[in-house]
């Protein structure tokens, strides 16, 4: 059988551990911690681990250590060691398998042999869009074996397929579709065998525009499915549905030789599965279609994928892109794939959207649900968990977190909690909800899409309590503390841990705890904690004195009930002159006491030099994307921007008398800009 490799495969037999291998200056400390806690973790003597994946986020740094046998990784067996931003260390998750036996780890067949065996077993005779063959130790069928784990996406076969091939005998031990679907999936036995076309690589980005549903026509218009003009009607472009489109900006699209393509830093259209409807390249940067045209689904999916990943990476400041080397950091999507099934799926950095019923790519909930699986996969370095339907719940949450942020439905309407408002909740299928009544774990029914609603419902209740950005950050950074066998219970603990590590106000942590408890999760009691406080620099008033404020917000002691006692020395109101001071914050709860000290530098008031007072300008205020500073600055001038917690969020050298500072990545709030040479500070509001 001759297999033609599709253009998206950069390295056919790339081993995933090599492509995402990372280093950390905390590795030695983490290994010493593993050794000291080996008995507690039930690690067998002489066990070895490799550092396979590292992520640094606002919640700290996570190192994933994979179990090894003679230098060969044990599949799905790892220990996660997490450092808080303040250097505290803990084991947050483990899928370590102590029952793995010592075996011969020298294979009798090659990884190329294993891939060919897999292709034959899967009856693949069309273009391969993704393939990896990875040697590993496998302990999932009652005995330990040396195997090749072959992952394959093929244009002619729906899904993302895993084949386990015995590395000694060549026997196929298992084949299964490991793609994540947005609803229950049955394979189409009559999948087309037509090959996919090959496209040229893009070269440059420009901006464009498009007409899309945001997030769907029913929410945009505030109507129900079945109202006049609001039915699928075989892709009918009714007046009502045309009017439900909105014009949007596409910050990046590819322009090569006069041809525009839906490709950006974060998303790229591809032909990944049947049917073949093309890439919708054109000579105009305006991608304006009605839903009667297939380009409509393409631009709608592209817009929402690009916008969501741009929000994560730039607004939230969380690095999250596909780790698959072929993708070069962009998620690949096919707006008309999945053999036209009434379903969509994610696998191996790729998204395919079906066309049955309502075209899935017309509903942002479907697009973002499938992206949610990708986020889960990329953050964990391939450790996505479907225990209790965890990843399904993650996808539902990510979809509704966005759609609810548009404020199109009030909280007293059923649609406020709908997942798949246009694709579902209609004659095609029932959709899902984030107002699910079952609780964990008595309400589990062992069906991942149904059970995932428990997790999504709990997260959206937290969302209502503390807001979108805080919940999104805690959710994404919490996934960083999970493994491939994490259940909803431990995921809840991980999300709360991430919030604490990011120094969320105790009131926010209390909301999270309450909502998780109401959902049935057992949340461990919180011992008194208080994160270290960064040193502070302030400027004296015109009297050249400084009245010491309360630093209670910076101290933020966290305990169940948020009732810790807190004292400050020197006390608030103490008048200080310019100089350096040590501030001590003391938190108490019963017999527990925590002291945190930090240095406060009071800079003298210079009365503002004539240059600064006469010429210093900073605008606009409030600001959305950038602020401009103008003045006769010293040649060594630089600025440091602090958030309300006194934490440094940005630094920049001022190289001219008029400088633009990009603040688009900052969250909404109040910030202080300090000019380090001039000793001047100004506040601005980031919208």
UniProtKB/TrEMBL annotation:
Instruction: Write one Pfam family the protein is assigned to.
Output: FTP
Task: Please provide the record's keywords in A-Z order.
Answer: Hydrolase, Metal-binding, Metalloprotease, Protease, Signal, Zinc
Q: Which InterPro entries match?
A: FTP_domain, Peptidase_M4_domain, Secre_tail, Zinc_Metalloprotease_M4
Q: Which GO terms describe its molecular function?
A: metal ion binding; metalloendopeptidase activity
Q: Which residues form the Peptidase M4 domain?
A: 256-375
Q: Where does the FTP domain lie?
A: 62-89
Superkingdom to which the source organism belongs: Bacteria
Q: Zinc as a keyword?
A: yes
Residue intervals of the Secretion system C-terminal sorting domain:
618-685
Q: Which GO terms describe its biological process?
A: proteolysis
PANTHER family according to UniProt: BACILLOLYSIN (PTHR33794)
**Protein name, as recorded:** T9SS type A sorting domain-containing protein
- Annotated source species: Flavobacterium rivulicola
